[in-house]
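Please complete every field before forwarding. Incomplete forms are returned to the sender.

SECTION A: IDENTIFIERS
Entry label: holo-624
Bound molecule: adenosine-5'-triphosphate
Molecule representation: SMILES string

SECTION B: INPUTS
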Amino acid sequence: MAAKGSISVNTENIFPIIKKFLYSDHDIFLRELVANAVDATQKLQKLASMGEFDGELGDLTIQVDVDKEAKTISITDHGIGMSEDEVEKYINQVAFSGATEFVEKFKDVDTSTIIGKFGLGFYSAFMVSDHVEVITKSFKDAPSVKWTCDGSTTYEITDADKADRGTTIVLHVNEDSEEFVDEHRLRTILNRYSKFMPIAIQVGVDKRTEKEGEGDDAKDVEIVEPHIINQKEPLWTKDPKTLTDEDYINFYKELYPMSEEPLFWIHLNVDYPFELTGILYFPKVKEDITPHKDKIQLYSRQVFITDNVEEIMPEFLRLMHGVIDSPDIPLNVSRSYLQSDANVKKISSYVTRKVADRLSSLFKNERESYETKWESIGLFVKYGMMTDDKFFDKAKKFGLFENIDGKKFTLEEYKEHIASNQIDKDGKHVFLYATDQGTQDTYIQAAKKKGYDILKMDTMIDSHFVSNTEHKFENITMKRIDSDTVNNLIETDEKNESVLTEDETKKLVEIFKRALNDDKLEPKVEAMTADELPVMITKPEFMRRMEEMSAMQGGMGGMFGGFPGADTVTINGNSELVGRILKEEDTAAQDKLVKHAYDLAKLSQGNLKGADLTAFINRSLEII
Ligand SMILES: Nc1ncnc2c1ncn2[C@@H]1O[C@H](COP(=O)(O)OP(=O)(O)OP(=O)(O)O)[C@@H](O)[C@H]1O
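SECTION C: PREDICTED COMPLEX
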């Protein structure tokens, strides 16, 4: 048996669901109703500009009023209004949008400013109201009407005595939502959602006193001015060619009053394949790389949607501040929907590309200034390179490596810079780096003596950056300066001649094992130069990274904690002191020398502490 049919939807059941689950925040009702009022006003302006309306436009300010006694909120506009037929059509049919119809009808002219799309927004009024009235008069010559509904599926339409054109929506606020019957609260909500809408929105008045007259005649007069919420033409809607640096900086200060001045900004403007405008600012970022919350605001046609862009924007882009406005970002939906929206994904990859392009042009055209900002930019670029492969591909051309002398190089420049003596026997460029110049000085000086260049990798992000990106750069090895003795940092086929015989070498290892008396230590002998320390302690790069990783994952006593032989103890076979240790016949004196040489190695790392340090000091005093 086969059958076909259409599923019937019962309005009585679906209506409460729309009211309840369409929006996650109840305060959205105000955004929706004000957006409708803005739409109605802009439609009228459009009609006037096309000659379809020749009356006086007059004051188009939208008013939001509160009546505490009556527990009502009303939103009044002077837009196109509705005739009885239109109320029937647009308000009574849920999900029938007059906005869409308007856009369809006038598709040959620019209707891009119209916000409404779905024909659902109006019903958000019932999230906070027991009943709702719409009192409206069309701009066409039609009688005014009043529509009333208590949130059920029945409504009433009666005559009204509204004389002027436009619409007033009156919300009789329900008991649970009384918090909204408050001018302050409404201003706050509108400041969040409607701060940049294109038609003036007034909530109440501001009063202040001013002196009038001179001398004895001077008196205080009260000045009453409408309290306007919004800036009708926010900076991002303007032509970048007409704007100065000061304009951008002032706008930034308005958005983030407590922040330092931004380093630079990007004015976004695209028509295809989606529409998007906005300004992204590059803030001064220091050590703190936790992406700032609430710093990027998403708008759709100047209506605020969210500043919670987590999972919408790649993490590293969230270090930026600013505004993104796109009609292609859905307005009426929840965040979980936003994340999977194809347009939102396209937008995020567009923004990534734009940011990379801007950095690239800054680097190419203003390298000096780019370098001075590198401290902040570097964190961001490294973060991006680690987390976004597409960004990595672009950023490897403008990402910089800084050496301990403060010189900055691109990847290619640096390879060139070290090509003469930092290529190992496998043909790999060896990038040597220091994470702490204070404690790694002995190693740094030894490397410098060999003519090696050393990179500075001392920010929080650097250790992650090293292990994360090394494999993405071709033919490069990164080694911390204390990961091996200087001769072995860069493996070549050359070896220093040792002054010791094989027997002496073996004997030396035994002496050290006995004197240090620590199973975890595996001393080995190496022919270094005579002026290097008698003993060096190093930690192989691989081992240290493992340890760092395990520490990061909270691994106290984890897999690599106290791993035997984690530190390498290298005895310098060519050191004079080591020669003396070998020749010493008194065991106690020999042990003392070994311990002292070992402690010196620890001291050179800033690692000699507690009882070991006390013993070292006492021993030194004895020797002196
Ligand atoms: N203040 C108003 N003045 C004139 N018409 C209005 C007003 N408010 C609503 N309307 C009409 O009612 C229609 C339905 O409004 P509703 O808010 O439900 O949907 P929308 O604005 O079209 O889309 P969205 O769901 O995206 O908000 C509007 O498209 C418009 O034609």
